Amino acid sequence: MIRNLSELYQYRALLMALSVRELRARYRASVLGFLWTFLNPTLSMFVYWLVFQVVMVRSGSFRAFPYFIFSGLLPWIFFSSSMLGGTTSVSDRRDLLTKVRFPAQVLPATVVLTNLINLLLSVPLLIGLGLVFGFVPTWHLVFLLPVLLVQTFFTLAVSYLLAALNVAFRDLQHIVASVIQLAFFLTPILWPMSQIPALGSLTQGESRQLVGALNPMAPLVNAWQDIFYNQQIPSDWTGLGIVAVEALLIMLVSTAVFERRREEFAELV
Q: Where are the domains of the chain?
């Protein structure tokens, strides 16, 4: 793992250049350009708000349900986009892998970095939307940095593993797309963690920790909602700690798999 990450740092200029190129290509010939990064989750927010609060007459306990949804959608879009793009990042880049000594580990990292830049540029827009609903930014924003570090490390770790496996097993990219769609509704984006009931002999708190262990995005999304919507310190530090440990373990496994198989990439793609 250390070798892989150190090589990634060594090729940081290439990583940044590819990320900038990807951002430019994504919005080339687009009238609205970067604004699509904000408009897509905004449209999704209105759809979910219409269905869950207007049509289904959701409980009125939410002060601003659209803002609650949006504060969870942004980290989810960063994660899901990185998973979908990271899975095919190696298998779709034969043009680069056939070049002499091209560092394959840069490709999944480029996808994650590109989506991270989009996420960071969307945070001021999230704050602006909060002002519309009467949410003035508080000092709790400082806790976004550790949450973002854990989420980025976890996303990068999973991206490495999926990218390496997808080279030989192309069905994986379709499986990932289906799992991502299912996981969206199992993540507290449209509902708060407080609605998780006590499961069996577990207390409600233990049930939340179980959900967080099974779905690493749950405590991460919950932390974003705590910071922006509830305007408080993230309430589930245990869950965030579990995600950090899971990220480390997955990174150890994924970099080992990536390192062992990357000599085969040029032949298999």
A: 9-264
